[in-house]
Amino acid sequence: MVQRPKWDRKWADQRNAVGFAATCARLALPFYRGDRRSVVVVAIEIAEDEQINATDAYAAANALHVARAADASGAADAARVAAYAAGYAADITYANAANAADDAIRAAVYASRAGVCDSELQIAFARWVTRDLSGGQDFDTELRQAAGAAIIAGDENLAKELLAGWIYGSTV
Fold this sequence. Notes:
The protein has helices at about 5, 15-30, 35-50, 55-75, 75-95, 100-115, 120-135, 140-150, 155-170. The chain is mainly α. The chain has a domain at about 5-115. It is globular.
């Protein structure tokens, strides 16, 4: 099972926490066999959209309600992952970003329980952390991969140094 500290971080941009949660949900989707699959798919799409209107917020709230019902009934972890991911997006829209990091951790834990390989979750986490550290900068593939490898190895400071060296033109 995934341990909490592995995914714990303070996100600079909460949309990246939502992106990680949505990626966890997408990875867990093949393990979901329930009759509410369409709600799960909509929840993922809402979380990935980054632009939520009132209709999407209502759909996200509905998905979060489905997730809570799934918790109460012991339903599939994959359903919880996807529905919570949409709920995180709605929370961020309504200035409740403080919970996004904890919710992203929960999404990773549920995805792992649903059957997603931990190495896939580590790669997804590294991708979203690299995006978070880049501050909107566009980096070449090799640099992103090097930063991601540092994150997977547990050295976020090295990833920061690699990205900072690129941004400021210094050598690392």
